[in-house]
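Quick start: read one record
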Amino acid sequence: MRKLLVTLALSITAFTAFCQEDSLLRSFKFRIDNFRAVNFNIAGGKFNNNKATTGDDKYSSSSAGFGISYYTLKSTDKILFTSSANLNSSFSASKTDNSIEVNKYSSFSGASGYSALNKWFSTNMFTELGTTVSGNYYINKNIVSNNPIVAKNGQSQYSIAINTGIGKGRLENVTDMQNALWLYKELNTVKSLSRPLSSGELNELGRAITKGNNTRVLDFRKKTQFILKTVDDYLQQKNLIPKTDITYFTSMNDILFFAFNNLRFAGTEKYIRLTPAISGGNNNQTQNRNTDKFEHKFSSKSVALSSGFGKYMPVNLNHQNNYGASLKLSYISTDSKDNILPAVL
């Protein structure tokens, strides 16, 4: 009889914990007034200069690159807006000098892109409008000193798409609430909490993690400190931490930065979307001054109509049920043209 009662008590405790996890994950609302992030990437000044130990063979090369990306997010009860932009470029050059010939090679590439999507919510309905634009360019040139051949190759591409749609429902990002539950579970395990947290307090802990993750701090190290301090401030204000020892901080650092957390959503969304798009580009090749230049141009026009639904159901920290279906109809028209033109170098 005693074993039966113990088993029943453990089952009820586990069931209650799972129900709490399920409820908190499904009801959490990801809200940020405005978050912006800028990232710079510079790779410059790489230079190699080698000379063979025997003979007069020489090789030198250099390369450089620059990139910048921008991201912004706004999530309120009425609006969900996301946008991103990027610009990247790179340059490389090399020279091989030996007793037979001098070979010079150079290349340059550049790429840029922009995407934005805005959803407006009214009651349980939404409308959306967005765009995706991208383009890239690449050129290289190869010159051989004792040969009339000058090989050049240039490529460029672009694409533009407009995203429009209407629908019902909303998908919420519940990853921060998942982190809050993992943190609560860990702090309970190491006995760092003075008392259990209510469902409302756990929801506020998830919001504190969201605030920490989505406040712009330029220095990465300061960003880490800000996230830890924001979550710690909330727990301290609630008088949940009797002592701030190393076990408490290492547990919090491990969950907030190193826990294995896949992106998770909760909710149901039904939609109809219309996406017209155009794209195109060209490829130019020249082999030498004595032959013609080959030019290949292509373009494409398309429109896609899609409809479907998705349902995301977090059961607990370890289990998620997702399912959905969609139907897509598309029309694509392509045009391709090859030209032989007199070479101009």
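The chain has two domains: 2-29+175-263, 32-172+266-341.
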